[in-house]
Amino acid sequence: MRFLKRLLGLPLSAAPQPDAPPVIEPLGSADLQRLNDWLSWRRPHDGRLHDIHALDGFLAGVAVSPKATTLGDWLGWLFQPRPPTRDEWPFVDMMVRRLAQVVFLLEENPAAYVPWLESHKHLGDRRAPLRMWSRGFALAAALNGSAWESRRPDAELERWMRPIRDAADQPDDAECEFGLPTLKRAVFIFNGCRQAG
Predict the structure, then answer these.
(1) d(CA 89, CA 77)
(2) pTM to 2 decimals?
(3) Total domains in the fold of the chain
(4) Which of 59, 101, 111, 120 could serve as a FRET partner for 31 with CA atoms 20 to 30 Å apart?
(5) How confident is the model over 64-75, as pLDDT tens digits?
(6) Phi and psi at residue 44, in whole multiples of 5°?
(7) Over the chain, what is the mean pLDDT?
(8) Pairwise CA distance, residues 146 & 170, whole Å
(9) Which CATH number do you get for residue 104?
(10) Domain ranges, residue 122
């Protein structure tokens, strides 16, 4: 099953096709609010992932990474040096559910991908949700830095990565130079490059 293997970071070769698509319940508004509040308090990875938009960008980056990333890899990297406690696992479960939703959409219908900053504008950092998403995506790219670097000669990929990288590096009060259509197109392009690779 391509979807499950990709979610777990396993090789896609010889993946059997499922009889029916998996049912993935999207997070409701109450869960997203709880997750956002927890992120603002827990501030994973030195505070760089402090709202749901940064988390959503990070999970999108994991989903389209040129190198398959296991759950243990990204969770361990994200929560270093202190792993999640038992009380925090419900929030980790929310993260995994969102990643599962993103991976499934990108496998089945990439054009249907909708970032949380489009569907839940009222949550997170309202000043710069695009910048927060970009910082999360850049954080995921750093997790598999060598794999992304190996793709830099690809002019098409670099064309779409550059504005995300620039937005991630700018201060909070700087105006973001790209909009939501560019972000969604970039994810579409990165996903196509991943599948082609």
Answers:
(1) 16
(2) 0.83
(3) 1
(4) 111
(5) 988 888 888 888
(6) -60, 155
(7) 79
(8) 23
(9) 1.20.120
(10) 31-196
